[in-house]
Amino acid sequence: MLKSCVSWPVEDAERYRNLGYWIDEELSQILERQVQENPTQIAVIDNDIEKSYACLEKEATRLASYLAAQGLCAGDTAIVQLPNCYEFYVVFFALQKLAVLPVNALMNHNQVELTHYAAALQPKLIIADTKHSLFGDSQFFEQLKACTPQLQYVLLRGQSTWAKELGEKLHASACFEHFDSLPFRKHQADNVAFFQLSGGSTGTPKLIPRTHNDYYYSVRQSVEVCQWNKQTRYLCALPAAHNFPLSSPGALGVFYAGGTVICAPDPSPSSCFRLIEAHKPNWAALVPPAVSLWLDSRERQHYDLSSLTVLQVGGAKLSATLAARMEKELVVTLQQVFGMAEGLVNYTRLDDDEWTRHHTQGRPMSAADEIRIVDENNQPVPQGEAGLLTTKGPYTFRGYLNAELHNLAAFTEDGFYCSGDVVKQTASGDIIVEGRDKDQINKGGEKVAAEEVENQVLAHPAVHDCAVVAMPDPLLGERICAFVVPREDLGQPLTRAMLNRFVRGRGLADYKYPDRFEFIASLPKTKVGKIDKRALREHIANLLTSSQTA
Ligand code: AMP
Ligand code: DBH
C-alpha cells in the first residue's frame, strides 16, 4: 500500500543530501539528542504535569516497547486522535521509534474523516481519547474493525470501561511503567515518518506522506529562522497535530532547540491568558480569528501577558489592520507564517521592517525552496504580478497517498506542487497572498473542501443539485454557504432546518457544516458549462451586505 507514496527523484535526493538538508536521521533523534544534552530540562508542561526530556524519552520508549510486545512493527500504520496534551508527544515519539506510521487526526474530526483515514491506511492501531464522542464506548471501534481487517488494537486516553485496562495507562502519570525498554533499531530516514493532513479541495481528504529527512529539515530550518534555543517557551494552543504547531517550528522545533512546550487546550483567551501568566511562554502561534478574540477580550487586563515576545500568525490571511493592532496592544513582534502541510513554509523574519511584517506573509524559509508564480498555462507571470504559487524543495512532498490521478493535476510535469494559492512576490521576494484558485473554504485557518460538503448535502434525497462556496465573515474571514437546488417532484418542501438536521446527522466534522443554506432554482454556469462559483460568491456576499444595510 505504501508503495504508492511518491518519492523525490534520485538526483534531487542526492543534491539535498550533499547540501546537508537531508541528514539521514530519524525524527526520534530530535528527542534523543536532548536526552544527551539536556535531560533535566522541562520539555512539556501540561496543566500540573511537568515532564523533562529524560522523562519524555523514557515514557515514549516504554510505550514503544509495549506496542512492540503487542505485535506492532515497522511499516504498520495507526490513527491517532488526541487533544493538546503531554501524551500526544509520548505517542508521537513512541510511534517514530517503532516506525509505525500514524496519521494524527484533529480532535474535531468525526466519523466520516476517521473512517476515511482507516480506509486509506488500513491501520493496525487506534490511539484516541475517551472524551471524544466516538470513543465513549466500543461502537465506533467495532464499526471500523468491520471494514478494516488489520485493525486490532485500541489505546485510550482517559477513563474507559471498554478497551480493557489499557486505556487508563495512557496517562501521563504512569505510561507503561512495568514495560522494560527495548532498544529500537534504526530505520531508513528516507521512509515516510507519518501522514500529514491536507485541507484538500476534493471529495475525500488527502493524506500527505512526510519522510524523516524532509520533515526533520523543515523543523531544523524553522528553528534557525526563528532563532529558537533552550530559553524558548512555546504556547501550543492550535491543534497539536496541525503542521503549524508541530513543525513551524512548533513543538518539534522546541524539542530540537531544547526549550519547553506549554500545552493549551485551545486558542481562546480564557484558556491561554491563565497559562501565559502561570508559565510565561515567550512565543505562541495563532490563527487570525484567535488574534481578534485576544485583542477584544475584556479578560486581557486581568492577566500579565508580558512574557510573550513573538506571536506567530498563520493558517489564513491576517489583515494589515489586525497586524498593527496586535503588535501595539499586545506589545509583541508579529511573525506571519504562510505554510502548508504539503511542505513549503514562509516566514516574515524577526528583523523585517514593519511594512513587511504587517503586509506580507513572509518568504520561503530555505534557500533550496523553488518558487514559481505562474498563469493557468504554467507560464511565469511578470515579477510583482499575481499568479498561482507552485513550489518544490527539500521538504515539499511529491505526491498524495494513493492518489495517482489527483497527483497528475496537483503537480506540474517537472514536480512543482500547485498550491492553489494566488500570490504575488515583492521585489525583495516576500510573498503576499491575494486569494485562492482551489475549491476550498478557509474558515479562519480551518480548511474545508467544497466538494466534500457538497457530497454530503447531495446525499439528501430531496436535493437535486448543490454548490458550496465561501461567504465573507467578519471574524473568521470566511464561512460556508451551500446553494441548494431542491427537487421539484417531491411533495414536501425542503427547508433549511431539514438540511441542517440531515447534514448534522452524517458524522462529518462540525466545522464543515454549512453555516447557511440558500435555495436557488438552478446553479449558474460559466461559458464552458462549469458551475459559476464566482457568481455564487458574489451573490451571497451581496445578500449579506444588503441584509446588513437594510
Ligand atoms: P493545508 O494545505 O491544509 O495545510 O493549508 C495550507 C493553506 O492554508 C495554504 O495553501 C494557504 O491557502 C492557507 N494559508 C496558510 N497560511 C496562510 C497565511 N499566513 N496567509 C494566507 N493563507 C494561508
Ligand atoms: O495553514 C497551514 O497549513 C500552515 C500554516 C502555517 C502550515 O501548514 C504551517 C504554517 O506549517
UniProtKB/TrEMBL annotation:
Keyword Ribosomal protein: no
Domain of life according to the entry: Bacteria
Domain AMP-dependent synthetase/ligase: 31-401
PROSITE patterns on file: AMP_BINDING
NCBIfam families (UniProt xref): DHB_AMP_lig
Similarity-based family: Belongs to the ATP-dependent AMP-binding enzyme family.
Full protein name: (2,3-dihydroxybenzoyl)adenylate synthase
Protein's organism: Pseudoalteromonas maricaloris
